[in-house]
Amino acid sequence: MAVNILGISAYYHDSAACLVRDGEIVAAAQQERFSRKKHDAGFPADAIACCLEQGGLRLADLDHVVFYDKPLIKFERLLETYLAYAPRGLRSFLTAMPIWLKEKLFLKDLLKQELAALGDLRKDALPPLLFTQHHQAHAASAFFPSPFERAAVLCMDGVGEWATTSVWLGEGNRLTPCWEIPFPHSLGLLYSAFTYFTGFKVNSGEYKLMGLAPYGEPRFRDQILDHLLALKDDGTFRMDMRYFNYANGLTMTSKAFDRLFGGPPRQPESPVTQREMDLAASVQAVTEEVVLRLGRTVQRELDVDHLCLAGGVALNCVANGRLWREGPFKDLWIQPAAGDAGGALGAALSVWHEYLQQPRTGSDTDRMRGAYLGPAFSNAAIEAYLQANDIPWQRLDDDQLMDRLAQLLADEQVVGWFQGPMEFGPRALGGRSILGDPRSPRMQSVMNLKIKYRESFRPFAPAVLAEQVSDWFEHTGPSPYMLLVAPVAEARRLPMTDAQQQLFGIDRLKVPRSEVPAVTHVDYSARLQTVHRETNPRFHRLLSAFAARTGCPLLVNTSFNVRGEPIVGSPQDAYRCFMRTEMDALVLENCLLLKADQPPAPADDDWQRTFELD
Questions:
Q1: Helix or strand or coil: residue 338?
Q2: Which residues pair with 29 in a beta bridge?
Q3: Torsion angle of alpha carbons 42, 47, 49, 55, nearest 10°?
């Protein structure tokens, strides 16, 4: 009899659900893709329903339900922190307590209530409800799906219950905790403090800060290390909390932080100045140094060849790239849903391997299936939707479709690409992507300003045929989850004139850096996704068709969404996004839609009614 385990993460940010059957990942999805609320923190009812449907189950069929956090320990940390900082922090205390006393402190009852309503069951008929610790779920999400039998696991995020950084040893079906750095000393919260100070939104703007860093100089690096962070040779650290406000206030930084860096935080949506670029470069340099030192310490202490990473800091692909190239490990494996969403996956796997003590099988392979773990839609369902809404389209077989798309992309057309299962995690990996020609000097600005409606400095990532990655980048081996940054190969770079080398800040964006300028950042780096025939054969086939036509085996790959919205989850979401942007074509499995053929988009008031989800 199969054992079915449902993992849940919720109530903080990036709620998600995951279904594991006999240790195999059946399905995983984030709630935001269904609710259309970015970083949705609510109970993931839609994501749970999706996982159960993919698994052919009802809620009553589950053997265990597990939550990725221990709320009572987190509440203990909250109270101890407020007591330690009293009488400061009263306003923050009064803001937090009603939520905890009403909901989070009684999370077990709340979860049972939500699950009972979802499954139309009595509470006493629900499957057993378990809880893992936050970093235990992160560590399980990193190690158990990895291809390693024995590895160190490094988890770094804002904070779980108490831990902000934790080190584990993974062996077979066991995870042994080694040591941790406790709150309030947090590399994730240090990075988020600079995210806040530079005018971006915490828990979502960290990507922007990382993308902004190459435009600046790390002139504040020493100030960070001299005042904010006491960093030891082994990578452990303590933070001077006089400069921060997140432990006892409603903001991330204090007035002392303002004085240290020459003024108040940048106002959101105001112009980005050289100060913000230099701050980004500085905290990025410090983050990379901390990660490298921690990696070397972990390898030395545990005597391991392999490292697994999870937690929000593991999404810092620039630091990961340096750890890959300069660190002491033979190989890295990074959980693609490294943030809180991946906690649902880790919690479910932890129950199977640690609570039920079941062995790992196939531990020499990546068990994430390319992160293509969400819902998929058939051609029949897509065609029924298009017909019902009188949307013009044409059906092409795979040969015709790939040939047509290769030509459209080579002509600098921007294509929305919707096929196969939806990706799990924050990256679009060729299931819900917007694609463009990386050779086009204008593609970055077109996609940022006319498609994504976001800041012009944001870089785009290349999706490249795995077998040709080393021909274009200084990298060998897989990078399937877009979580490693590598330099563009020297032979592909374009020489710069003396005048171009004198440019500073955002003016650097105007200079093409390589044969593929749309995916080459100003420091000659690129965030790699290697595309493998085994995990995404149709995307691999499209890249191959483009390479046959152009000699270039890569495409610009960015997530299928506009600024402020989650990645599209359904054909309806995809068509809505297509019509609201200046995309030229949309592919829904084998259905090709051209913008020139479409009727005018309805007014926003009519949109929800006209394209209501099935």
A1: coil
A2: 17
A3: -150
Q: Taking the chain, what is the end-to-end CA distance rounded to the nearest angstrom?
A: 34
* pTM over 0.70, yes/no: yes
3-state secondary structure 496-530: CCHHHHCCCHHHHHHCCCECCHHHCCCCCEEEEEE
List C-alpha distances in Å: 89 to 96, 243, 530: 11, 14, 47
Which token pair is 343?
Answer: 């906690």
Angle at 417 between CA 343 and CA 317, to 5 degrees: 45
Cis, bond preceding 566 (omega within 30 deg of 0): no
Name the phi and psi angles at 86, rounded to 5.
-60, 145
Domains in the chain (CATH in brackets) are 4-68+70-131+340-367 (3.30.420.40), 180-334 (3.30.420.40), 379-610 (3.90.870.20)
- If one counts every other C-beta atom within 10 angstroms of the C-beta of residue 555, the result is 34
HSE at residue 459, side-chain half, CA atoms within 13 A, is 30
Residues 6+ apart with CB under 8 A from 365: 147
The amino acid occupying position 417 is W
Name 289's Cβ contacts closer than 8 Å, sequence gap at least 6: 231
User: What is the Cα–Cα distance from 575 to 389, expressed in whole angstroms?
Assistant: 11
Residue 152's alpha-carbon distances to 41, 212, 359, in angstroms, are 30, 31, 18
Measure the CA–CA gap between 359 and 50, rounded to whole angstroms.
27
SS (H, E, C) 247-302: CCCCCCECHHHHHHCCCCCCCCCCCCCHHHHHHHHHHHHHHHHHHHHHHHHHHHHH
| pLDDT 10s digits, 430-483 | 999 999 999 998 898 889 888 887 777 777 999 999 999 999 999 999 999 999
- Neighbour tally for 502: CB within 10 Å: 9
pLDDT, one tens digit per residue, over 361-376 is 877 889 999 999 999 9
Q: How far apart are CA 341 and CA 33, in angstroms?
A: 12
| The token pair that represents 483 in the structure block | 């979580």
**Assigned token pair, 105:** 């402190």
Residue 549 sits at the vertex; the CA angle it makes with 555 and 510, to the nearest 5 degrees, is: 45
